[in-house]
């Protein structure tokens, strides 16, 4: 059995929201509220949920771009939250991030060669000639050409810019890549090209991915396992095929019902969720999904459901699966 490269235990991020005129006490915004998961070496874990569910905050805490309020993050056996700033800097060589908006994450005043070389300079890797050679190799690896090194980000399409972002992430030979909505800003036709590239690179370099997306259809092909987040918590986690074929949590079922299936004989009724995702500063009592759940019961309004393994590797946090209730 492969070892866990990353283990996240009860991770929380509560932001202070400040005092309001109407409330004496400020309520913390519970952006991430007790998230636990592990990722094996070479695996891709998809983390999915609507905007504001805490998935991107989780990714940024793993990089320590945001400091967690509580919990533990073990990477290669070391607790990242106990590292001093010097060790955090060297840890960032092994954990790289690919961002949603490649244009915003690439310095518009720098040529591509400088952008890709920069992480190698920061981590003192190679001399000038070695780094230059590597930049050219990386451009070829991500499907661009050596002559692109002299150009500026605005001279590329969105898909090409994301390839540059990927080349920059690969420059320091990371072990884990956190891809935060890496294809959301791209045309659908380009999305699959970038997803295929990421898959090829994973096989070639034995990369481990945490792939964050708001859309279950995007993570379907690339993920080995998928976790579904709602209001700062993981409500369901399972192997990819198990989750898509046998979703248990009503929220996962609703998300999946809106994913188009390319089979004209397959009739699927979309489950429409009522209302918006509640504010994380005033999360509902009990199950955080109870204000929108089509199966809500009395217990859901007062008792927080705990995550339980109902089938091997398939965890769900929902009272429908408590022993005294019938599974849907
Ligand atoms: Fe719905 Fe209750 Fe399950 Fe929450 S615990 S998802 S409200 S049935």
Averaged pLDDT, please? 91
Estimated share of beta-strand residues: 15-25%
Amount of helix: 25-40%
CATH class of the domain at 1-17 and 27-83 and 212-260 and 268-328: Alpha Beta
| Poorly predicted spans | none
Reported by name, the CATH topology of the domain at 1-17 and 27-83 and 212-260 and 268-328 is Rossmann fold
Using the 3D structure, state the CATH architecture of the domain at 1-17 and 27-83 and 212-260 and 268-328: 3-Layer(aba) Sandwich
User: Given the structure, what is the number of helices?
Assistant: 10
Largest sheet: number of strands, sense, barrel closure: 8 strands, mixed
Distance between the termini: 33 Å
What does this structure look like?
The protein has 328 residues and is an alpha/beta fold. The protein has a domain of 184 residues: Rossmann fold. The chain contains ten helices and twelve strands. The protein has an eight-stranded mixed sheet, sandwiched between helices. Strands 2-1-4-5 form a four-stranded antiparallel sheet, with helices on one face. A hairpin with a 2-residue loop joins strand 4 and strand 5. Helix 4 packs across helix 5, helix 5 packs across helix 6 and helix 6 runs parallel beside helix 7. The longest helix has 18 residues. It is globular. The two termini are 33 Å apart. Bound molecules: iron/sulfur cluster (SF4). Iron/sulfur cluster binds next to loops.
């Amino acid at each position: 059995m492969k070892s866990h490269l990353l283990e996240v235990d009860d991770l929380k991020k509560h932001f202070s929201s400040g005092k309001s005129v109407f409330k004496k006490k400020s309520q913390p915004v519970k952006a991430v509220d007790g998230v636990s998961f592990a990722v094996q070496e070479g695996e891709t874990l998809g983390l999915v949920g609507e905007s504001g569910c805490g998935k991107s905050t989780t990714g940024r805490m793993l990089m320590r771009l945001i400091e967690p309020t509580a919990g533990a993050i073990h990477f290669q056996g070391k607790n990242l939250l106990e590292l001093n700033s010097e060790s955090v800097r060297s840890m960032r060589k092994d954990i790289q991030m690919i961002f949603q908006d490649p244009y915003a994450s690439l310095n518009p005043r720098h040529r591509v060669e400088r952008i890709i070389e920069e992480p190698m300079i920061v981590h003192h890797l190679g001399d000038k000639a070695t780094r230059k050679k590597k930049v050219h190799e990386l451009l070829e690896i991500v499907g661009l050409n050596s002559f692109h090194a002299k150009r500026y980000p605005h001279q590329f399409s969105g898909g090409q810019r994301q390839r540059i972002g990927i080349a920059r992430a690969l420059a320091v030979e990371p072990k884990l890549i956190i891809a935060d909505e890496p294809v959301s800003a791209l045309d659908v036709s380009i999305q699959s090209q970038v997803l295929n590239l990421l898959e090829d690179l994973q096989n070639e370099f034995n990369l481990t991915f945490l792939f964050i997306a708001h859309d279950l259809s995007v993570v379907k092909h690339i993920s080995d396992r998928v976790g579904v987040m709602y209001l700062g918590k993981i409500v369901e986690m399972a192997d990819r095929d198990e989750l898509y074929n046998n979703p248990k949590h009503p929220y996962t079922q609703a998300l999946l019902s809106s994913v188009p299936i390319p089979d004209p004989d397959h009739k699927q009724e979309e489950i429409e969720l009522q209302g918006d995702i509640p504010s994380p500063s005033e999360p509902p009592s009990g199950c955080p999904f109870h204000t929108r759940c089509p199966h809500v019961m009395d217990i859901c309004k007062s008792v927080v459901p705990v995550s339980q393994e109902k089938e091997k590797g398939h965890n769900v946090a929902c009272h429908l699966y408590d022993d005294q209730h019938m599974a849907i």
